[in-house]
Design a protein that fits this description.
Layout: E1 4-8, H1 15-27, E2 31-35, H2 41-50, E3 58-61, E4 64-66, H3 69-79, H4 90-105, H5 108-113, H6 129-149, H7 162-176, H8 183-193, H9 196-206, E5 210-213, E6 221-224
Bound molecules: glutathione.
Glutathione binds next to helix 1 and helix 3.
Length: 231
């Protein structure tokens, strides 16, 4: 049987790709990961060839194409039910699915303004209220989960799960933009950052030779850069 392939975008910038990759690693699936450089002419052509939506992550497995992070989570959960993508208890599963769905469809301020740029450090002061209220909501999700599952481990549902895969890019954004966190949410963010699979992704991001400029009115510009390898 052919090895599954997970197509991802630039690791430094593509938060949805990071989620897909962390989920695939958590599931135990044997897969190969292929990076498609976003916003290049060559990348656009490849994206359209491999993903019906033209977006990544897209998992090619068993003759299927699964082109959305939530659908990838559910598919992998069905294939590998013991991997712990969703918590074992029904209440925990419902809560985990709620917070991942909320992440998937919401937080448009954070997603639009604090875009993932993993290797960068650009602390921002005076965030507008709309962003501060989204950050407060994320902290309240993290605190609530940590209060419920503190006895079972350091992550949202105790053990590392699909919910942590969904929030790991948020941890990276908070580091890049210097978002100050308190108590339980800071400890949670620190625990996520040092996870080996998060660090692997960050190292790979630091080794990428592309820089994206979102500020250009004509669309995102890509520049080739010297690789620093710094995380
Ligand atoms: N809802 C999708 C979102 C995927 C998405 O927006 N991916 C971005 C990269 S982070 C993409 O492929 N962009 C390519 C483009 O817009 O050309 C998911 O959850 O997987």
């Amino acid at each position: 049987m052919r090895l599954a392939v997970l197509y991802v975008g630039n690791r430094n910038y593509s938060s949805w790709s990071m989620r897909g990759s962390l989920l695939a690693r958590l599931s135990g699936l044997e897969f190969q990961e292929e990076v498609i450089p976003l916003y290049t002419a060559e990348g656009r052509e490849r994206l359209l060839a491999i993903s019906p939506s033209g977006r990544v992550p897209c998992l090619h497995i068993e003759g299927l194409r699964i082109w959305d992070s939530l659908a990838i989570a559910e598919f992998l959960h069905e294939r590998f039910p013991a991997a712990g993508i969703w918590p074992a208890d029904p209440a925990g599963r419902a809560l985990a699915r709620c917070i991942c769905a909320e992440m998937h469809s919401g937080f448009t301020g954070i997603r639009g303004t604090l875009s993932m740029d993993m290797r960068a450090s650009r602390p921002k002061t005076d965030l507008p209220e709309v962003l501060r209220s989204e950050i407060r909501r994320i902290e309240s999700i993290w605190r609530d989960c940590r209060e419920r599952y503190a006895a079972q481990g350091d992550f949202l549902f105790g053990a590392w799960s699909g919910a942590d895969c969904f929030f790991a890019p948020v941890v990276s954004r908070f580091r890049t933009y210097g978002v100050e966190l308190n108590g339980a949410s800071r400890r949670y963010a620190d625990a996520v950052w040092v996870r080996p699979e998060v660090q692997d992704w960050a190292q790979a991001a630091a080794a990428e030779p592309w820089e994206l400029d979102y500020s250009h009115p004509g669309g995102v510009r890509v520049r080739e850069i010297a690789v620093t390898g710094r995380v």
